[in-house]
Amino acid sequence: MRGFKKKLIFLALVIISPLSLQTVKVYAGSFGAEIFCTMRDGGNDHESSWEAAYTYVKKQKGGFFKVSPKQAAAQITESVIRDKETFSYCIEYLDKLHPNRKLIRDLQKEEKRKEKEAQEREKNRKRLEKELEETNENFSEETIERYSY
Q1: For residue 19, what pLDDT is reported?
Q2: Is the dihedral of CA 71, 75, 76, 80 positive or negative?
Q3: Rounded to an integer, what distance in angstroms lies between the CA atom of residue 80 and that of residue 77?
């Protein structure tokens, strides 16, 4: 009988603990949304508002695993959508929480390509200057003057 009580208590803890963690997650996402929306509505830029909300969500989550930026953005978005009446002014700011990651990668690739092209042009310019200097050293002053007889 004593072993049965221990198993029953353990089973109850196993069932209750995930529910309590879920409550913390929902609360953190909801207050993270409130932080983000209030800051944006107050005139702050996206980056500072996002950093404040994300820091709060990360801090409240706890546990072994950290909250990724995607997860935090999803929690904030979910809280705003779930409570549209409270956060009606914030819906316009949600698009910045989920940027087009493919577009960002493409822009970064394009920027790297342009940097590489610029380095190549600079390398070719230096090579041509060096060749020109070597060629000019081979000519004397007399051969350069056109009308010297």
Answers
A1: 44
A2: positive
A3: 5
Output phi, psi for 45, to 5 deg: -75, 170
Cα–Cα distance measured from residue 17 to residue 21, given in angstroms and rounded to the nearest whole number: 6
Q: Helix 69-82 to helix 46-61 angle, to the nearest 10 degrees?
A: 100
Phi, psi (deg, nearest 5) at residue 120: -65, -45
* pTM of the entire predicted model: 0.49
Return mean pLDDT, the chain: 78
Distance CA 115, CA 76 (A): 37
Distance CA 46, CA 51 (A): 8
- Among the listed residues 68, 67, 74, the one whose alpha carbon sits nearest the alpha carbon of residue 98: 74
**Contact at 8 Å (CB) between 9 and 37?**
no
pLDDT above 70 coverage of the chain, percent: 70
Q: What are phi and psi of 26, to 5 degrees?
A: -65, -45
Amino acid present at 101: R
3-state class (DSSP) for residue 138: helix
Structure tokens at 6: 């221990």
Q: Which of 88, 78, 4, 3 is nearest to 40 (CA)?
A: 88
How many alpha carbons lie under 13 Å from residue 105 in its C-beta half-sphere?
Answer: 3
